[in-house]
Amino acid sequence: MALAQQIQLQTGGSGARGSARRIAGSPALRVAGRRLLSAIPVLIGVTFLTFVVMSTLPNTTAQAILGLNASPSAVIALNHSLGLDQPFWVQYWHWLSNVLHGNFGTSIQGQSINHELASRVPTTLMLLLYALVVSVVLAIIVAALAARRPNGIADRLSLAVSVLGLSIAPYAFALVLIIVFAVKLAWFPVLSGPVTDPSSFFRNLTLPAASIGFGLFAIYTRLLRADVVEQMQREDYIVTAKAKGVAPWRVLIRHALRNSMFNLITVIGLNLGGLIGAAAIIETIFQVQGIGNDLLNGISQHDEPLVEGIVLVFALVTVFGNLLADLAYAVLDPRIRYGRSTS
Amino acid sequence: MAAPLPDVQLATPTPPPLPSLINARQLRAQRMGRALRLWVPAGILIILLAICFLLPLVTTLPSATRGNIIYNNEPPFSQGHLLGTDVQGVDIFSQLVYGGQVAFEISLAVTAIGIAIGGTLGVVAGYASGWVDALVSRILDILIAFPALVLALVIAQGLGPSEFHLILALSVFGIPAVGRIARGATLVIRGLPYITAAELAGTRRWRIIARHIVPNIVPGIVTFSLLGIGVVIILEGALDFLGYGIQAPQPSWGNMIANGQQILSAQPEYVLIPSIALLITVAALNMLGDALRERWGVQ
């Protein structure tokens, strides 16, 4: 079973086989399996909705390919040969069966979308991961500092920064970053070039990742800080740990922060969908060669196959992100890891 | 010789310090802080709304769409132009005022639609359970997983740019979010004893929803909606910024930022001024939402 193998890889170490078997029978994995199955109608629904929405736009594909001087009969003929005069559910079925065979079709500019996605998806994924990892790590550090003394200086400062992060529009923040770091200080380029090696990765993706990540950092910091503070005041195991004479820092990190990770993981999974919009706008501002940028171009050119392909990729990322969050629960929570039901 | 009393006190965990046990000065400071946290953002919002909607009625502002090219690039605080003029000589303060009107109108309309449709769907799904719940939840799932920006852009492009079409396009964001919150809150309330009591007393379903469920989920939805208004203002700006929203001669904060982007390195203030207006508005909404949440005890 593929999922069990995946778990085995993640747990690793000695006796992995035994624990994998225990996990395979655990409720968390069954939930994850059910999630995977329920993802299928969501994916179909999302792609179908995209099809319906895109087909409401005036069909200018043939006109765009043939040019403005094409005769109306040539336009009709090309529409027919492309299958664009068929009802949209026929077109959708056609597209879906092609995708299931691994063929995303060709964009109206005549390029293979498979090729387009293969060259551009990695850049967007790198950008999103960069933003996500840095914001999560910083949020954990800042939340721990803030929760150490509620209403202290660090706490108030972190609150101010997180309100700022929640309130600033990502595109406005991106332009501010450009003014300061690209124009005035000239540390980074205004427009991002292609990413080929680690140094170009940091050079080209740091400002876009910061624009996306600041808002995420604000959300995560708020969430973690509130959760940790509540645990420190309420939970019995905190009192026990303190009574045993565990150092305050250790109580905070090993006992409270560790438990708060579960909420954080859920929120990260839920947020993935919203990252798409941010990625599209930020990639356009910095001209990052990713699929967010392609998505906006595709919409403005009514490039239905391209938009469909990109929406599917984003929907897959969202669904699998949520699934990974579920699996992370199974791996991190000892009650689930050792195969005991939580109820 | 009141020996047993200390024993009993030792056995119970230390209670959290009650407000009445803190000295009077601390208590007053606490109350003051709470009042300030509520009224400072509320005051900022009232002032912003007054500037946007009342100021144009009582004074004559320079035109926000046409300017004299002779007076272009005037610095802030110059004669007759509070925040200066842009490249075409259009008064920036007037643009901010009329752009603010658009931002408030659209975000309030979108939030109202979100509460009306999403809230109804969520409450009905949460209360009815069974196949109704399954169907509504699945639809909300699809709408949440669907990149709403795509839908919003396509709607804005297909219908043509106008304020009303923007409201329709942005409702795609509002409805599923409120729907999910309302459903979750309804599920919590539904499990409480007084709902069972009402059901046993033979109260009609719509009456249970109207009298017992809706009043109890309103605080949660209002605080969430205040954050939602901020999000919609940012998104509306994003659509304008990308050129799918309010179109050029009519000012909006988003297209002011987009225009400023063209001359970013020479004159960053054209980006900074509308960005700061956006920031202050959304921050005030967020802080007001937080203060109300604290006051009403919403989690």
Provide an overview of this structure.
The complex is a heterodimer of chains A (343) and B (299). Chain A has 15 helices and no strands. With 343 residues, chain A is mainly alpha-helical. In chain A, helix 9 (170-184) packs across helix 10 (198-234). The radius of gyration of chain A is 24 Å and the shape is globular. The two termini of chain A are 26 Å apart. The model of chain A is unreliable at 1-17 (pLDDT under 50). Chain B has 10 helices and no strands. Chain B has helices at 4-11, 24-58, 92-128, 130-145, 148-159, 163-190, 193-200, 205-241, 253-262, 269-296. Chain B is globular and about 75 Å long. The two termini of chain B are 46 Å apart. Classes of the chains: A mainly alpha (343), B mainly alpha (299). Chain A binds chain B through residues 41-42, 45-46, 49-50, 53-54, 56-58, 163-164, 166-172, 175-176, 178-179, 183, 190, 233, 239, 273, 276-277, 280-281, 284-285, 295-296, 299-300, 307, 311, 314-315, 318-319, and chain B through 13, 16, 138, 141-142, 144-151, 153-155, 157-158, 230, 234-235, 237-238, 241-242, 257, 260-261, 264-265, 268, 271-272, 274-275, 278-279, 282-283, 285-287.
